[in-house]
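SAMPLE LOG
Freezer: B-3
Tube label: C17
Construct: single chain, 190 aa
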Amino acid sequence: MTDTTRESASPASDTGDNTTASDTDDNTTASSETVTGGQTGTDGVHLGHVHLKVRTLDRAVDFYTDVIPDLRVTERVGQFVFLSVGTHHHDLALQATAAAEPAPDAESDAVGLYHVAWELPTATALRSAYERLRERGVAVSPVDHGISKALYADDPAGNGVELYLDTRAENDRREWQGRDTRFDPTDLGE
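STRUCTURE (predicted):
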């Protein structure tokens, strides 16, 4: 994956901030209620977990628990490992697959998962995640979207990962305005 591919995606789907029910597909009820990322909807609906296929479970677990320190293993069963950052049984499910299986291809126009985004609580946490990724030799693309500062990378299996800090309040901005500029993650949290 190249950095430009990850940079070009609109973060609206990542933060969920500028989507209204009327912008969604025909299976929803139209309303003017704004959908906000990371929160439970008025009817109790929320994203339960993400399930990723990986080549090597231990390598993937090591990657995710290192990059996202609050993420912990809750259960291991056969070819599956379940991890959580809170009270859910799991926020992330990892499933081992054959090593010969092809990696995800973010370069293609194929339909599929682009990346999984993890919101971090502070600028210091985002800087620390950047440092851990670089220590691992992982290529990182830091992008300031104006509403968030994001780090884009791939996990060891090639799955896209975004780690971001929501900056809407500090920038007095609620909607993404097409801004995608580089920033230096080592300047965060100072």
